Structures
1.
Amino acid sequence: MSFNVDAAGKTNFIAAGSVDRPVAGEEAAGDGMRQTLNLNFSPENREKIRKALDDYAKSVDQDHDRIEERRRAMQESLKERFLDADNDNDGTIDRQEATEKLPQIARLFSQVDTNQDGVISLEELQDAQSRAAERRSAAEAAIEAQKLQATDASAATKSKSKQASNNSKKRTY
């Protein structure tokens, strides 16, 4: 199995072994991420992929400074928007404040308000942002995995076709 990784404006080709079928009971025992992704990678191949991505990330940004800088900037931006929306300065955003200043959050208010107390705290908003990022990453990984599986299946079909063609040529001689 191989895939392209884009980071910091550079594209690298990474090979990480082949796709295997799930180990018995792995999906049931796996964490939510594995269940969400619903991938057919063996534990060994998942570890190879993680290592390849870690190695690549370290080669591009050895100390992860850029990643951490972006993460801090996003957190700071989120905090600023939260504080701007908190009209009564009580440290929370109610449905009205969200509707006025954060319409995207207002549409998802019940999902963001995880403790269902009628207000959103900064922590709840940060958790919601993290969950959304995880879902995006999982969806992107699932799409990439489907592309890889389709490519592998296509290659296997071509190989079988070529093998059958070679076998039929041998019979004609």
2.
Amino acid sequence: MFLTSFYSNSILVNLFEDGGTLFMSLILISFLLSIFFIVKGFLKLNADNSHILKMIKLAKDFSYLGLVIGFLGSMIGLISAFDAIESLGNVAPSMVAGGLKVALLTSTFGLLTAALSRVGIIGLRFLSKV
């Protein structure tokens, strides 16, 4: 059991590092902030609606920020991959595929975090009847 957990954790860490630590960290921070505001909204369900609406707005803003950072990281990764291809000239297809994989990791992580945040926002809206 421990080995399976350790193996899956190392895969996630490798994907995180492959996507670029800076962009992946920024996406993770925006995701954690979005989840924080969703949880804070759930804890204040009995409070006034203005506080819940503020938490929903902040959660939406941070989930969109993670999405945008993901696509920005993807574009920067693609530009750097194409620069490397241009400078090397004749490039093996495996190098191109590897570069595209790395470039798409940030957008995938950004999409995942935005989708998970949206599920929490929908749940908060449903329970708060806002």
3.
Amino acid sequence: MILGMSGATYTFLHVLISLAGIGSGFAVMFGFLTGKRLDGWTAIFLVTIVLTSLTGFLFPVEHILPSHVVGIISLAALAVAIPARYVFHLAGAWRWIYVVGAVLALYLRRRGASVPESACPEGARSDAERAAVPGCSTHRHGALYRSGHSRSEEVPCRAGRYCLIGRISWFS
């Protein structure tokens, strides 16, 4: 249970907030390209991106994951971008600082759009069962990657067989 919700419900809510952030972020980026401020879209974007990063930290995990690092970097970028927009009103250098921070936050939100392995249903052995929860890896190497094993190490797969992990990248 996370905030009184089941893991699947919390994950679904987290993914919905994330999708709202990504969608509104594209609208804000369109505003950047056309020279329009789009104040409403900007507020929705900033609130949902911050909420997505914050809710990502509430998933039960045993150690820091790459998604946590992405969330920390995203929140740091937003900690500069939000005052640039609302306190300094995009005056002078604050305009490009805001744009860089907002674009970085949107990029990182897209790159960090996954949920921790612990949020996936326990006992879900098939790809179909895992795919029922948004963001859960349906690839065996994704599940093994998130569990923190190093490359070329034999690790038991969910199906009970052994897998040989090849090259693992932090952000793939």
